Amino acid sequence: MKLSVLPKIELHCHLDGSLRPETVIDIAKREGISIPSFDLEEIQRELTAPIECESLDEYLKKFALPNLVMQSQENLRRISFELLEDAAQENVKYMEVRFAPLLHTKKGLDVEVIIQSVLDGMKDAEDQYDIKGNLILSCMRTMSVDHAFEVVEKGKKFLGKGVVAIDLCASEEEGFCRIFEAPIRLAKEYGYRVTIHAGETGIGTNVLEAVKLLGAERIGHGVFIKDCDEAYHIVKEQQVVLEMCPTSNVQTKAVNNFREHPIYNFHKDGIKVTINTDNRTVSATNMLNECNLIFNEFNMSLEDYKQIYLNSVEACFAELETKEMLKKYI
After folding, report:
1. Average pLDDT for residues 314-320, to the nearest whole number?
2. Domain ranges for the chain
3. Which residues are annotated as a binding site for Zn(2+)?
4. Residue 58 annotated among the catalytic residues of the structure
5. Which residues are listed for Zn(2+) binding in this entry (predicted)?
C-alpha cells in the first residue's frame, strides 16, 4: 500500500508547533529577534523535542521559540500559509489548524487581527493548492477562565468564516473541565464545535468529564481511556472521535513506544480514531510519516486506512459540501 498517493485529512495540528526552521531564522534576522543561533541545524534541534522527552511539560517547552516570531500580522499570515503548503505536498486534502490567539498579543496585536491574519494565510494556500482548511481556537488551561471567555467572544465574528471550533490545551491537570465549563458552554451557544485535549497524560477521567461536562465531540489524544473503563465506554458508545498523534504520544510518554500505542486496539474495537501530527516541527513528523508508522507497526490494511479516513471526514468540522468532496477522494 503506497500511502503517499492516498488522500489525507488532519484534524489535530498546532500552528506554533509546525514552523519551518528556515522561517524562524529568516524572521529573526529581518526583525532583530534574539534566537539561540542562526544555524539551521541548531535551530532545528531547538524546535524539536527529543523522542526521549520525560513528560508533556518538557515537550511543551519547545513552543517558546516559535512564539517569538509569531507576533505580527505578516508573520502569522506567512506561517499559516506555509503550514498548509507543506501539508498539501503530503496529499492532505483538508486540515484543521489550531492555535491559541492570546499567545500572539505580546507586541500589541488585537485578538481579532491575530485570528484574521491566520485565516488570511490559510486562504492564500487554498488559492494555490488542492487543500481546504479551517481554524480551531485554543484556550490555554494555564490561563484564567476570563481569558477563555475573551477567546470565545473575540472569535465569535469569524464563525462561518473559517473558525469552526473551540479547544482547551496546554499542561493537563486533573479536573480542568470543571474550571472551564462556563466559557465552553457559551461557545456552544454561539455555534462553536467542541474538541478538548484530554487523556494525554495519565488521567482518563478527564476524557469522561470533557464529554459529560463540556460536550466534547472530539478528544485530542485520549490515550488514557485505556485505563479508565467509564471513559472508554462513553467514548465508544457516544462515538466520540479521538484525534490521535502517535509520535507526539511517544515523545510525551503517554506511551513508551509505538508498539504500545492503543490506536489499533481502539480501532478494532469500534472506537473512531483519526491519525494526526500534533506538531510537525516539534515532533519532526508529517502526515505521511504518521500513517506509515501506524500502518507498518500494526500491519494495517487499505480497508483500515479507508475507515480511518472516513472517520476523519465525518468528524471534521467542515460544511457538508466539503465533506462530500472529501469522500470522493477516497
Report:
1. 98
2. 17-329
3. 12, 14, 197, 278
4. no
5. 12, 14, 197, 278
